[in-house]
Write a structure and sequence with these properties.
alpha/beta, Rossmann fold, UDP-galactose 4-epimerase, domain 1, 7-stranded parallel sheet, 10 helices
Protein backbone atom coordinates (compact mmCIF):
# COMPACT_ATOMS: atom_id res chain seq x y z
CA UNK A 1 0.00 0.00 0.00
CA UNK A 2 1.44 3.35 -1.04
CA UNK A 3 0.74 6.43 1.08
CA UNK A 4 0.71 9.87 -0.53
CA UNK A 5 1.88 12.45 2.00
CA UNK A 6 0.71 15.92 1.07
CA UNK A 7 2.93 18.62 2.54
CA UNK A 8 5.67 16.02 2.91
CA UNK A 9 8.42 18.57 2.23
CA UNK A 10 7.41 20.67 5.23
CA UNK A 11 8.68 20.59 8.81
CA UNK A 12 6.16 18.09 10.18
CA UNK A 13 5.59 16.36 6.85
CA UNK A 14 9.27 15.52 6.40
CA UNK A 15 9.29 13.89 9.82
CA UNK A 16 6.23 11.83 8.90
CA UNK A 17 7.94 10.73 5.69
CA UNK A 18 11.01 9.72 7.67
CA UNK A 19 9.07 7.76 10.29
CA UNK A 20 6.90 5.88 7.80
CA UNK A 21 9.82 5.09 5.52
CA UNK A 22 11.94 3.76 8.38
CA UNK A 23 9.01 1.56 9.40
CA UNK A 24 8.92 0.00 5.92
CA UNK A 25 5.88 1.84 4.54
CA UNK A 26 5.79 2.84 0.87
CA UNK A 27 5.45 6.62 0.65
CA UNK A 28 5.35 9.40 -1.94
CA UNK A 29 5.27 13.17 -1.45
CA UNK A 30 2.98 15.82 -2.96
CA UNK A 31 3.90 19.42 -2.08
CA UNK A 32 3.56 22.83 -3.72
CA UNK A 33 6.83 23.97 -2.05
CA UNK A 34 5.24 27.26 -0.96
CA UNK A 35 6.72 26.65 2.49
CA UNK A 36 8.26 23.20 2.06
CA UNK A 37 11.84 22.40 1.07
CA UNK A 38 12.51 19.87 -1.69
CA UNK A 39 15.80 18.91 -0.03
CA UNK A 40 13.89 17.46 2.92
CA UNK A 41 12.51 14.67 0.70
CA UNK A 42 14.90 11.73 0.18
CA UNK A 43 15.94 11.25 -3.44
CA UNK A 44 14.45 7.76 -3.63
CA UNK A 45 10.98 8.95 -2.50
CA UNK A 46 8.66 9.80 -5.44
CA UNK A 47 7.93 13.53 -5.42
CA UNK A 48 5.29 15.54 -7.27
CA UNK A 49 5.13 19.33 -7.06
CA UNK A 50 1.54 20.46 -7.08
CA UNK A 51 -1.28 22.13 -5.18
CA UNK A 52 -4.25 20.37 -3.65
CA UNK A 53 -6.45 22.74 -5.65
CA UNK A 54 -5.34 21.04 -8.88
CA UNK A 55 -7.69 18.09 -9.34
CA UNK A 56 -6.14 16.97 -12.63
CA UNK A 57 -2.64 16.83 -11.13
CA UNK A 58 -3.93 14.95 -8.10
CA UNK A 59 -5.81 12.49 -10.28
CA UNK A 60 -2.69 11.73 -12.32
CA UNK A 61 -0.57 11.40 -9.19
CA UNK A 62 -2.88 8.94 -7.43
CA UNK A 63 -3.13 6.83 -10.57
CA UNK A 64 0.54 6.90 -11.54
CA UNK A 65 1.73 6.01 -8.03
CA UNK A 66 -1.07 3.50 -7.28
CA UNK A 67 -1.98 5.37 -4.09
CA UNK A 68 -4.47 3.76 -1.71
CA UNK A 69 -3.81 5.86 1.38
CA UNK A 70 -3.45 9.62 1.92
CA UNK A 71 -1.80 11.46 4.82
CA UNK A 72 -2.92 15.06 4.40
CA UNK A 73 -0.65 17.63 6.05
CA UNK A 74 -0.60 20.33 3.38
CA UNK A 75 -2.20 23.48 4.80
CA UNK A 76 -1.65 27.08 5.72
CA UNK A 77 -1.16 27.30 9.47
CA UNK A 78 -0.32 30.79 10.76
CA UNK A 79 -3.04 32.04 13.08
CA UNK A 80 -2.34 35.76 12.63
CA UNK A 81 -2.23 35.42 8.85
CA UNK A 82 -5.53 33.55 8.90
CA UNK A 83 -7.15 36.52 10.64
CA UNK A 84 -5.75 38.90 8.02
CA UNK A 85 -6.52 36.62 5.04
CA UNK A 86 -9.47 34.41 5.99
CA UNK A 87 -10.65 33.73 2.43
CA UNK A 88 -7.15 32.62 1.45
CA UNK A 89 -7.13 30.17 4.35
CA UNK A 90 -10.57 28.82 3.50
CA UNK A 91 -9.52 28.35 -0.13
CA UNK A 92 -6.22 26.63 0.66
CA UNK A 93 -7.32 24.56 3.67
CA UNK A 94 -10.97 23.82 2.97
CA UNK A 95 -11.35 23.99 -0.81
CA UNK A 96 -8.00 22.26 -1.23
CA UNK A 97 -9.11 19.45 1.08
CA UNK A 98 -12.47 19.16 -0.70
CA UNK A 99 -10.68 18.77 -4.04
CA UNK A 100 -8.34 16.16 -2.61
CA UNK A 101 -11.23 14.19 -1.05
CA UNK A 102 -13.16 14.27 -4.34
CA UNK A 103 -10.21 12.81 -6.22
CA UNK A 104 -9.40 10.33 -3.44
CA UNK A 105 -12.97 9.01 -3.43
CA UNK A 106 -13.15 8.56 -7.20
CA UNK A 107 -9.67 6.99 -7.25
CA UNK A 108 -10.50 4.27 -4.72
CA UNK A 109 -8.40 5.54 -1.82
CA UNK A 110 -9.12 3.29 1.16
CA UNK A 111 -7.60 5.29 4.03
CA UNK A 112 -7.40 9.04 4.70
CA UNK A 113 -5.45 10.54 7.62
CA UNK A 114 -6.04 14.24 8.31
CA UNK A 115 -3.63 16.54 10.13
CA UNK A 116 -5.84 18.60 12.43
CA UNK A 117 -4.99 20.86 15.36
CA UNK A 118 -5.81 21.71 18.96
CA UNK A 119 -6.88 25.07 17.51
CA UNK A 120 -10.30 23.47 16.95
CA UNK A 121 -10.92 23.79 20.72
CA UNK A 122 -10.42 27.56 20.88
CA UNK A 123 -10.14 28.68 24.52
CA UNK A 124 -11.20 25.64 26.57
CA UNK A 125 -11.73 26.33 30.27
CA UNK A 126 -10.78 22.86 31.45
CA UNK A 127 -7.78 21.30 33.20
CA UNK A 128 -7.16 18.83 30.40
CA UNK A 129 -8.69 18.87 26.93
CA UNK A 130 -10.38 15.64 25.90
CA UNK A 131 -11.72 14.82 22.47
CA UNK A 132 -15.21 15.45 23.89
CA UNK A 133 -14.36 19.01 24.93
CA UNK A 134 -16.60 21.31 22.86
CA UNK A 135 -14.94 22.70 19.74
CA UNK A 136 -15.15 26.49 19.52
CA UNK A 137 -12.32 27.80 17.32
CA UNK A 138 -11.54 31.49 17.69
CA UNK A 139 -9.72 32.18 14.42
CA UNK A 140 -10.10 31.21 10.74
CA UNK A 141 -7.20 28.73 10.95
CA UNK A 142 -8.96 26.75 13.68
CA UNK A 143 -12.24 27.00 11.79
CA UNK A 144 -10.69 25.51 8.66
CA UNK A 145 -9.29 22.60 10.66
CA UNK A 146 -12.66 21.85 12.25
CA UNK A 147 -14.42 22.10 8.89
CA UNK A 148 -11.76 19.76 7.53
CA UNK A 149 -12.54 17.16 10.18
CA UNK A 150 -16.23 17.31 9.28
CA UNK A 151 -15.51 16.84 5.58
CA UNK A 152 -13.08 13.98 6.12
CA UNK A 153 -15.49 12.13 8.39
CA UNK A 154 -18.48 12.63 6.07
CA UNK A 155 -16.54 11.67 2.93
CA UNK A 156 -15.18 8.56 4.61
CA UNK A 157 -18.63 7.33 5.56
CA UNK A 158 -20.11 8.13 2.15
CA UNK A 159 -17.30 6.64 0.07
CA UNK A 160 -16.03 3.79 2.20
CA UNK A 161 -12.73 5.27 3.36
CA UNK A 162 -11.36 4.61 6.86
CA UNK A 163 -10.50 8.06 8.24
CA UNK A 164 -8.74 9.67 11.18
CA UNK A 165 -8.07 13.21 12.40
CA UNK A 166 -5.07 13.92 14.64
CA UNK A 167 -5.43 17.03 16.79
CA UNK A 168 -1.92 17.90 17.83
CA UNK A 169 -0.81 20.49 20.28
CA UNK A 170 2.37 22.64 20.45
CA UNK A 171 4.99 21.02 18.20
CA UNK A 172 8.71 21.50 18.86
CA UNK A 173 12.05 19.76 18.41
CA UNK A 174 13.59 17.87 15.50
CA UNK A 175 14.53 14.28 14.75
CA UNK A 176 17.74 15.59 13.16
CA UNK A 177 19.27 19.03 12.75
CA UNK A 178 18.64 18.98 9.01
CA UNK A 179 14.89 18.54 9.55
CA UNK A 180 14.50 21.32 12.13
CA UNK A 181 11.83 23.98 11.74
CA UNK A 182 13.04 26.91 9.65
CA UNK A 183 10.11 29.15 10.57
CA UNK A 184 10.04 31.61 13.47
CA UNK A 185 6.39 31.39 14.42
CA UNK A 186 6.33 29.15 17.52
CA UNK A 187 7.69 29.78 21.02
CA UNK A 188 10.96 27.83 20.85
CA UNK A 189 12.35 29.28 17.58
CA UNK A 190 11.03 32.71 18.55
CA UNK A 191 13.14 32.61 21.72
CA UNK A 192 16.14 31.33 19.74
CA UNK A 193 15.78 34.26 17.35
CA UNK A 194 15.65 36.77 20.20
CA UNK A 195 18.74 35.34 21.87
CA UNK A 196 20.69 35.22 18.62
CA UNK A 197 20.26 38.94 18.04
CA UNK A 198 20.84 39.90 21.67
CA UNK A 199 17.24 40.67 22.59
CA UNK A 200 15.18 39.46 25.53
CA UNK A 201 12.46 36.82 25.10
CA UNK A 202 8.95 38.12 25.65
CA UNK A 203 6.17 36.66 27.79
CA UNK A 204 2.79 37.88 26.61
CA UNK A 205 0.85 38.10 29.86
CA UNK A 206 2.27 37.28 33.28
CA UNK A 207 -0.96 37.54 35.25
CA UNK A 208 -2.81 34.39 34.19
CA UNK A 209 -4.34 32.10 36.79
CA UNK A 210 -1.43 29.66 36.59
CA UNK A 211 1.38 28.76 38.96
CA UNK A 212 3.84 31.33 37.59
CA UNK A 213 1.39 33.66 35.84
CA UNK A 214 2.33 32.67 32.29
CA UNK A 215 0.34 30.50 29.90
CA UNK A 216 0.64 26.72 30.17
CA UNK A 217 0.88 24.58 27.04
CA UNK A 218 1.30 20.94 26.08
CA UNK A 219 4.53 20.77 24.06
CA UNK A 220 5.00 17.68 21.91
CA UNK A 221 8.16 16.57 20.09
CA UNK A 222 7.79 16.46 16.30
CA UNK A 223 9.28 12.96 16.31
CA UNK A 224 6.36 11.88 18.52
CA UNK A 225 3.95 13.59 16.12
CA UNK A 226 5.48 11.52 13.31
CA UNK A 227 5.18 8.26 15.24
CA UNK A 228 1.53 9.06 15.96
CA UNK A 229 0.90 9.41 12.22
CA UNK A 230 2.56 6.06 11.63
CA UNK A 231 0.42 4.39 14.29
CA UNK A 232 -2.76 5.94 12.89
CA UNK A 233 -1.89 5.05 9.29
CA UNK A 234 -1.28 1.43 10.19
CA UNK A 235 -4.58 1.29 12.08
CA UNK A 236 -6.47 2.77 9.13
CA UNK A 237 -4.95 0.20 6.78
CA UNK A 238 -6.85 -2.55 8.60
CA UNK A 239 -9.96 -0.66 9.76
CA UNK A 240 -13.33 -1.33 8.17
CA UNK A 241 -14.43 1.12 5.43
CA UNK A 242 -16.22 4.15 6.83
CA UNK A 243 -14.75 3.93 10.34
CA UNK A 244 -13.41 7.16 11.85
CA UNK A 245 -11.06 8.08 14.68
CA UNK A 246 -10.42 11.51 16.19
CA UNK A 247 -7.65 11.80 18.78
CA UNK A 248 -5.47 14.34 20.54
CA UNK A 249 -1.72 14.05 20.10
CA UNK A 250 0.00 15.45 23.18
CA UNK A 251 1.96 14.45 26.26
CA UNK A 252 -0.78 15.24 28.74
CA UNK A 253 1.70 17.43 30.65
CA UNK A 254 1.73 21.19 30.89
CA UNK A 255 4.81 23.40 30.68
CA UNK A 256 4.48 27.11 31.28
CA UNK A 257 5.93 29.65 28.88
CA UNK A 258 8.24 30.90 31.64
CA UNK A 259 9.43 27.36 32.38
CA UNK A 260 10.15 26.75 28.72
CA UNK A 261 12.12 29.99 28.36
CA UNK A 262 14.16 29.13 31.48
CA UNK A 263 14.90 25.70 30.01
CA UNK A 264 15.96 27.28 26.72
CA UNK A 265 18.37 29.57 28.57
CA UNK A 266 19.89 26.56 30.33
CA UNK A 267 20.19 24.38 27.23
CA UNK A 268 21.59 27.09 24.97
CA UNK A 269 24.10 28.42 27.49
CA UNK A 270 22.59 31.90 27.42
CA UNK A 271 21.56 31.66 31.07
CA UNK A 272 20.59 35.02 32.52
CA UNK A 273 20.53 36.56 29.05
CA UNK A 274 17.40 34.51 28.44
CA UNK A 275 15.54 36.24 31.27
CA UNK A 276 12.21 37.26 29.73
CA UNK A 277 10.45 40.60 29.78
CA UNK A 278 6.70 40.82 30.17
CA UNK A 279 4.26 42.36 27.73
CA UNK A 280 0.49 42.67 27.57
CA UNK A 281 -1.62 39.59 26.95
CA UNK A 282 -2.36 38.71 23.35
CA UNK A 283 -6.07 38.52 22.51
CA UNK A 284 -7.34 34.95 22.42
CA UNK A 285 -4.57 33.32 24.46
CA UNK A 286 -6.15 30.85 26.92
CA UNK A 287 -4.42 30.39 30.27
CA UNK A 288 -3.98 26.63 29.93
CA UNK A 289 -4.30 24.15 27.07
CA UNK A 290 -3.11 20.65 27.94
CA UNK A 291 -4.20 17.51 26.14
CA UNK A 292 -5.71 14.38 27.55
CA UNK A 293 -3.74 11.63 25.80
CA UNK A 294 -5.89 8.76 27.07
CA UNK A 295 -7.85 8.03 23.90
CA UNK A 296 -4.88 7.77 21.55
CA UNK A 297 -3.19 5.44 24.01
CA UNK A 298 -6.29 3.26 24.20
CA UNK A 299 -7.06 3.29 20.47
CA UNK A 300 -3.58 3.14 18.97
CA UNK A 301 -1.33 2.02 21.82
CA UNK A 302 0.64 5.24 21.31
CA UNK A 303 2.23 7.56 23.83
CA UNK A 304 4.84 10.30 23.61
CA UNK A 305 8.46 9.35 24.33
CA UNK A 306 10.27 12.70 24.39
CA UNK A 307 10.35 15.37 27.09
CA UNK A 308 10.74 19.15 26.96
CA UNK A 309 14.54 19.08 27.30
CA UNK A 310 14.86 16.79 24.27
CA UNK A 311 12.65 19.15 22.29
CA UNK A 312 14.80 22.17 23.12
CA UNK A 313 18.13 20.39 22.62
CA UNK A 314 17.19 19.00 19.23
CA UNK A 315 15.62 22.27 18.05
CA UNK A 316 18.72 24.18 19.17
CA UNK A 317 20.99 21.85 17.17
CA UNK A 318 18.93 22.62 14.10
CA UNK A 319 18.95 26.36 14.79
CA UNK A 320 22.75 26.39 15.21
CA UNK A 321 23.17 24.48 11.95
CA UNK A 322 21.65 27.48 10.17
CA UNK A 323 22.88 30.14 12.64
CA UNK A 324 26.35 29.05 13.80
CA UNK A 325 26.94 32.46 15.33
CA UNK A 326 24.29 31.64 17.94
CA UNK A 327 26.22 28.78 19.53
CA UNK A 328 27.87 29.40 22.91
Amino acid sequence: MTWLITGGAGFIGAHVVRAMREAGESVAVYDDLSTGDRSRVPEDVPFVQGTTLDAAQLRRTLADLSVHGVVHLAAKKQVAESVERPLYYYRENVQGLQTLLDVAAESGVRAFLFSSSAAVYGMPDVKTVTEDTPCAPINPYGETKLAGEWMVRAAGRAHGMATASLRYFNVAGAASAELADTGVFNLVPMVFEKLTRGASPVIFGDDYDTEDGSCVRDFIHVDDIASAHLAAARALAVHAPGTDLTVNVGRGEGVSVREMIDLIGEVTGYGAEAAPVSAARRPGDPARVVASADRIRQELGWSARHGAREMVESAWAGWCLRHPEARR
